[in-house]
């Protein structure tokens, strides 16, 4: 059942749609929208959207603050996500690789992977190269 979307929720959703697959802390989002939505409304809507499964809460290392990732529709729900632990950048796994992985988990573990909910953590090429060039 479609719920009435408040203006606040709409503004928040528009903002998130421009930042698909980015890790955003609640305060980052609140700051970006501070001239349009009150902080408490941002936090309340984020919590609602998380409860509705529209927003993923990212368990961030050490930080006490809630960090969220917004999945953008079909492309996201059909993709495995690769997330860099260093810079927080999230990209979609190459589709063929993702399908092969999902299929082999299904065959070998008798387990159906929910692609849109799955994030694999590691280090992206940019961060790896940065480290290499420093040493
Ligand atoms: Zn995605
Ligand atoms: Zn990175």
Notes on the protein architecture:
The chain has 135 residues and is α+β, with helices and mostly antiparallel strands. It has two domains: 1-70, Orthogonal Bundle (Arc Repressor Mutant, subunit A); 74-135, 2-Layer Sandwich (Dna Ligase, domain 1). The protein contains six helices and six strands, in the order αβααββαββαβα. It has helices spanning 7-17, 26-32, 39-51, 73-77, 95-109, 125-134; strands spanning 23-25, 55-58, 67-70, 81-84, 90-92, 119-122. The strands form two sheets. It has a three-stranded antiparallel sheet with strand order 1-3-2. Strand 4 and strand 5 form a beta hairpin. The longest helix is centred in the last third of the chain and has 15 residues, at 95-109. The protein is globular and about 50 Å long. The model has no long low-confidence stretch (mean pLDDT 88). Bound molecules: zinc ion (2 copies). The site of one zinc ion (ZN) has 7 residues, from helix 6.
CATH architecture of the largest domain: Orthogonal Bundle
Please count the helical segments: 6
* CATH topology annotation of the largest domain: Arc Repressor Mutant, subunit A
CATH class of the largest domain, please? Mainly Alpha
Q: How big is the Rg?
A: 17 Å
Distance N terminus to C terminus? 56 Å
Shape: globular
Overall domain count = 2
How are strands sequenced across the largest beta sheet?
1-3-2
Task: Please name the fourth-level CATH homologous superfamily of the largest domain.
Answer: Winged helix-like DNA-binding domain superfamily/Winged helix DNA-binding domain
- Identify low-pLDDT runs: none
Heterogens: zinc ion
The helicity comes to 40-55%
- Mean pLDDT level: 88
The succession of helices and strands, N to C, reads HEHHEEHEEHEH
Structural class: alpha+beta
